[in-house]
Every structure is written in C-alpha cells, then in structure tokens.
Design a protein that fits this description.
Layout: E1 2-3, E2 6-12, E3 19-23, E4 29-34, E5 41-46, E6 49-56, E7 59-61, E8 72-86, E9 94-107, E10 115-123, E11 126-133, E12 141-147, E13 150-153, E14 160-163, E15 177-180, E16 186-187, E17 191-194, E18 200-206, E19 214-220, E20 223-228, E21 237-240, E22 243-244, E23 247-253, H1 256-260, H2 264-267, E24 283-288, H3 290-293, H4 309-322, E25 326-329, H5 358-368, E26 371-377, H6 382-398, E27 403-407, E28 415-418, E29 424-427, H7 432-447, E30 451-455, E31 470-473, H8 481-484, H9 493-497, H10 532-541, E32 546-548, H11 553-557, H12 560-568, E33 573-582, E34 586-593, E35 604-610, E36 615-620, E37 630-637, E38 650-657, E39 662-667, E40 672-679
Parallel strand pairs: 24-25, 24-32, 25-26, 26-27, 27-30, 30-31
Antiparallel strand pairs: 1-8, 2-8, 3-4, 4-5, 5-6, 6-13, 7-12, 8-9, 9-10, 10-11, 11-22, 11-23, 12-21, 13-20, 14-15, 14-17, 16-19, 17-18, 18-23, 19-20, 28-29, 33-34, 34-35, 35-40, 36-39, 37-38, 37-40
Length: 680
C-alpha cells in the first residue's frame, strides 16, 4: 500500500549551468553538484558546515571515453515528495518518505562523449544519489572498469571511524575496528565515522541490483573512492543499453542514534514487486544448529548426526509446547560427510540421509503446528546449487517449508561457478555475478512462496522492500563465533553492530545462548562474552523478523524464568526507536509490537546493552502511550553480575509504570536489560 503526495516544484531546461543544489526538507542538509572543476563533482553541507568536500563523479570504461573531464551541466529537474507507505513486516508499520530531489544531467560536447544524469534525493537525515545512463549511440555495450565516485571527508584529520576490512577471506565476518579515519584503508559499507565537529556519518548503498557491490578505498588521506568488486576477468560491471546504478547513500546525524532512526535505505528501493506476500511470516524458531557448533552433534552422518527424524521430532515437540513457529534443520541432505567446506560439488538438495524422513516430518510438523525450516548450504559452488534449485524449492514447497536458510560458505573471492564451456571461475561474494545470483535465488523462491534467510550473503541494501520474502540475512560476525571464534565476539560487538552493520537491515544473529560456560568461564574462553540479561536484550536490540532461540532446549528448561522473555518477545514491530547510545559503547532500543497472531499490538519492549564497561542509564518512558498503565516485566543484571565469572546473575521484577516515569538501568560489564511493558 502506498499513500502518495507528489508536488512538482520546478522543471527547467538550461544550456549552461555551473552549480545545481538541493536542500533537505528541513533545510539542514544541502548537496551541490558542479561542473566548475575538471571533472563533475558534488559536495554536502550540514547545518552550514561542509561534511563532504568537492568529490568527483563519473565512470571509466574499457572501450569508451570516460565520463569525467569536459562534462557540463545541461539540464536540471526538481521535485519534492512527501508520502507514506506500509511494510508487510518490519521495524515499523508505516514508513515516511519525505525528500527533495534534483536530477542533474551532464553532457559532453564531443559527439562521442556521452551523457548521464545524477539523481539526488535529500532527506532530513541524509542524501542518496545514483547515476542514470540512457541508451545512446556508442554505449550499447559497456564494460565499466571503475566508478569515479569519491567521498572526500571534511575534517578527516580528527575523525574516528568504525569499520571492517573489505575483500578479505572471511567476507563480512570480522570484528569491528575503532581507529582514526585515515587508518581505514579498504572498507566495507555501511562505513560509519564521526568527524572533528562530532557529526556522525555513514556511507552505504541502496537498491544493489545487477551491479557490483561497492567498497570504499582510501586512496589519499580523507578521500574514499567507490571501489567496485570485479568479475573474475577484472571488469567491474557489464551493461547493455540504458541502466541505473545503485544509490550511494550518506546518512548524517548529530547524535549517533539518529543514524539508526532513519529509513533512507528502504525509501531508495522500489516498492514490492511480488504482489500478495501474506505468506511471508515473521516469527521465532529453534533449530538443530548450535549443537553442531559446540560439538554435541555433527552435520555429517554417523552416531552424532544431528539431523535425524527422531531428533527433529524432539525439537518440534519443544517448539510446539513453547510457542515457536519452526525448527531449522541443517545437515539433513547428503554431501555433509568429509570436507564439505571445500567441496560444494557433492551436495544434493533433494536427497536426504537415510535417517531423515522429510515426508514423515512434514506430516508430523503439520499435526503439531510447527514447520520445518529448510537449509541449503552451497559451500560456494553456486552452479551446483543453480542446477538443483528449482527441484529443491519444489521439494520444500511440497513439504510445507516456507522459509529456507541458504549458505555460501567460501573464502571471499572463491565462489565457484562453472560456465557453459565447463570452465571453473571464481567470483567474489559481492561481485555483479553474485549480486544477480542471490537475487535469482530469492525470486525463484518467491514462486514457491518461500522466504529466504541468506547466510554468507551479499550485504543488505534494502531490497527487502522490493522482495519482501528476502526476510533476513547474516553478513556479520554472528553468534557461532562465540563457540569457536578464538577470539569470540568481544563485549563491544553488539553495541558496534547497532551503528554499523544494522544500518543496512535485519540480521540473523541467532541470539539467546543460556549456557554461557560450555567451554568454561573466564575472559580467554570461546563462549559468549555477555551476561544472561544481555542475551535476552539482543531480541530487541538486533532486529530480524525471524529470530532464533539458538541454544539447546535443555538449557532453556533449566532457566524457565529467563526463558519466559524469549517466549513473550515478538519479531514484528509497529514502531522502533533507538533511544540512546554511542557507537561501540552502548545502545538502548524501544519497540512496539505489531498486532499479529497472539500479539495485541499494545505492548512495548525495551532492550539495552553495553560494552566491557558497566554503566548506569536513565531512560524516560515517554515513548509509552500517555494515560495508560503498563506492567513492566524487567530482566536485568543482578547486583553481582559481570560477564567473565558471574554472567548468570539475573534479577527479574515487575512494577507498574506510565509514560511519565523514568527507569534507571544498571548494566553490568557486557551486560544488558530486557523489558516487556505489558499494557493493562
């Protein structure tokens, strides 16, 4: 559903212009495009101070002359949009799209020079721009070797950056660095930093379709270039005829939490293309997963095989009794024996091991109101998967499976594809080839009414708006690193993800580990470096429309009072607000449940987490509806809690509150607080 109010402000056609500018609706942000330098450029001001200095625009091609020197502004168009649209699921039900837009056309007098348009949208909390290249003589078939887009950071000398390296073997699964901005050499987006004036910015992209993923390359101090991840033959992007690039996005905020309270990425994506998506269901699941990571079970066959019919029925019984929608089963299909990590050729996506009866389990799950959640691990051999994908989805559809977790485990540039000549080529996870491969998987799944949870994915760029069955994805260092990561995720990890990776969209982090000492306690052990209260808070802080209760059922049954919060907390929200926080230090979130299934739409939830430092945070409850009473169910770190040796110290209490009240949250080292505000 889209409610639109479109006002055309101006339309002008000019032969010569030097600078074209557009301001955000509130006037705080101004972006200017210019042809005064040798190459077309742009700059951005925030509250009358420059945050992005003059930065180059354009392309270089393998055959055609570059879109760079000699281009002049030949046309501008402006408009303003103030509209609202509805999400079928998400952080909030209604999204407001309020921006001013300018489309600036650059052309070169040379008959073979070409023309292109830069379309800019200025929001109150940032800017998005993209290139639009029309069909034109001499550019019918192009190979982009380089995008010339720059991001020249004003005040870079004293800026602080939070980042992970790009084009590494481990894709996006790295611990975040906190460094001076000049030390961020080649980085993934979202790339978050704070300039010398204390302004927070984050650079990312939106609507990444049929194009290479962009990383940022700091070629000279403070100036980052768009660095497109290439094909195996070295070409960045291959295009035929007219095309649009993804949007380059720059979120801008005085406070760190204002980066989070932004819908720029979603608003720059196209509306839903799938039609009726009522079959896409948010929810919670359990799974035969964590046991593999802590070595109580195996993916491969044998006496410790996790994916057996009997074991799956046990998980289904647990899910049915405690209100979970599904059971994820990994390791059910043949191919897991031996060195599967490096041999994705051997996977079958339709042939089960002898001890796993998918037909019987589909029937059993239907009787108990619990679905199987499917799993497809490719080990990076995408041709093997592509060849079986249609049959695999048909099998799952027949088996009442409506969600599938896919996996693309492979070193960063080692995705294996076999071309029509039988030649093996190796591609990056975020190359144009793989961008298209991931989207093919999602759109084919939609034909079978299946939602996709992608692991080892391409980064999120808001395509969940256009394809709502792309329900979540990984794309960061998840919970499994706490089992064997050496080192595991540090205490600051969640407070870092909230302001970096999570700006892109939902993450399947797999929270809720209750046995925090499976390898022993202490600081040097592979284990979650959190308190129990922090594990509960993750369900509110780290958004995903499907959330896993990741631990073994026996560990939840051993702590039923704490487990109650996981049973209560929803995964679909009417509203979400980041209340307070600083990058890598702490974050406080409030979310209101959406009316769906057993949820009334009246309750609020709060999650707060901190890094290695204990801290006290005062939270105003003015997000609650005025004039109403709520019963606050509070799960917080106990008096003696600290993550290293006393992570289980948990205090649970209830009290009546209203919107006029304040709560004082005392967070232990790597601790947290989780609260349900139950409407009375």
């Amino acid at each position: 559903m889209r409610i639109s109010a479109l006002l055309l402000l101006a339309f002008s056609s000019v032969s010569v212009a030097k600078t074209a500018s557009i301001a955000s609706p509130n006037g705080n942000i101004t972006i200017s495009l210019s042809d005064e330098l040798s190459t077309p450029s742009y700059s951005i001001n925030f509250k009358n101070k420059t945050v992005i200095d003059n930065s180059a625009l354009g392309f270089a091609f393998k055959q055609q002359a570059p879109f760079s020197e000699g281009f002049k502004i030949t046309n501008t168009q402006q408009q303003s949009v103030n509209s609202q649209w509805q999400q079928p699921w998400g952080e909030r039900t209604t999204v407001t799209d309020h921006h001013n837009e300018i489309a600036v056309t650059f052309s070169k007098a040379d008959p073979h020079g070409g023309t292109y348009t830069v379309r800019v949208r200025a929001f109150n909390n940032g800017v998005g721009f993209r290139y639009e290249v029309p069909a034109q003589a001499g550019f019918e078939n192009i190979a982009i070797t380089k995008e010339l887009t720059e991001f020249a950071i004003a005040g870079a000398d004293n800026a602080t950056a939070w980042w992970i390296p790009a084009r590494g073997w481990n894709r996006y699964e790295y611990v975040y660095n906190t460094t001076p901005l000049q030390d961020a050499a080649l980085v993934h987006t979202p790339f978050t930093f704070k300039n010398q004036d204390g302004v927070h910015l984050s650079i990312h992209e939106a609507a990444l379709v049929d194009y290479a993923g962009m990383v940022l390359n700091q070629r000279r101090p403070g100036v980052f270039q768009a660095d497109l991840t290439p094909w195996s033959d070295g070409i960045a992007v291959k295009k035929h005829g007219a095309f649009n690039t993804p949007w380059r996005t720059i979120q801008i905020a005085e406070k760190a939490v204002d980066l989070i309270n932004s819908d720029i990425i979603l608003n720059l994506n196209e509306p839903n293309k799938l039609g009726d998506v009522s079959w896409v269901k948010p929810g919670k699941y359990v799974g035969i997963w964590w046991g593999m990571h802590i070595n109580t079970h195996t993916w491969g066959s044998g006496e410790k095989h996790g994916a057996t019919t009997e074991h799956t029925k046990y998980y289904m019984d647990f899910a049915a009794e405690y209100g979970f929608d599904g059971v994820l089963v990994e390791g059910w299909n043949t191919g897991w024996d031996g060195d599967w990590f490096f041999n994705g050729d051997v996977f079958s996506f339709t042939q089960a091991y002898d001890d796993f009866d998918i037909d019987a389990l589909a029937k059993y799950g239907k009787q108990h109101g619990v679905q199987l959640i499917g799993h497809h691990e490719t080990s990076g051999n995408v041709t093997n998967y592509r060849n079986q994908m249609a049959d695999a989805f048909a099998l799952y559809e027949k088996s009442n499976v409506s969600q599938v977790k896919t996996g693309y485990v492979a070193d960063g540039g080692n995705i294996k594809r076999i071309d029509q000549q039988g030649i093996a080529r190796h591609e990056w996870h975020d190359s144009q080839f793989m961008v298209n491969e991931y989207l093919y998987n999602v759109t084919l799944a939609a034909k079978h009414k299946i939602s996709i949870n992608t692991h080892e994915p391409i980064k999120d760029t808001g395509l969940r708006r256009t394809y709502p069955n792309w329900i979540t994805r990984e794309g960061a260092r998840g919970q499994e690193f706490n089992a064997w990561g050496t080192p595991p995720n540090p205490p600051e990890h969640i407070a870092m993800l909230a302001f970096t990776r999570m700006l892109a969209g939902p993450m399947d982090f797999t929270p809720g580990i209750f046995d925090l000492s499976f390898n022993g306690l202490g600081a040097e052990t592979n284990r979650p470096q959190t308190t129990l209260a922090k594990q509960l808070a993750l369900y509110v802080v780290l958004y995903s429309p499907i959330q896993m209760a990741a631990d073994l059922p026996k560990n939840y049954l051993a702590k039923p009072d704490a487990f109650q919060f996981i049973q209560d907390v929803p995964t679909d929200w009417q509203q979400s607000i980041a209340l307070d926080g600083e990058v890598g230090d702490f974050i406080v979130f409030a979310r209101k449940e959406r009316k769906r299934d057993k949820y009334t739409g009246n309750d609020w939830y709060l999650g707060a987490v901190t890094d290695e430092h204990a801290r006290t945070i005062e939270v105003k409850l003015d997000f609650l509806e005025p004039g109403k009473q709520f019963e606050a169910h509070i799960y917080q770190d106990g008096k003696h809690a600290e993550w290293k040796n006393k992570p289980y110290d948990l205090n649970i209490e209830k009290r009546l509150v209203t919107a006029n009240d304040k709560l004082t949250l005392k967070l232990a080292t790597s601790g947290g607080t989780a609260i349900r505000f139950k409407a009375i």
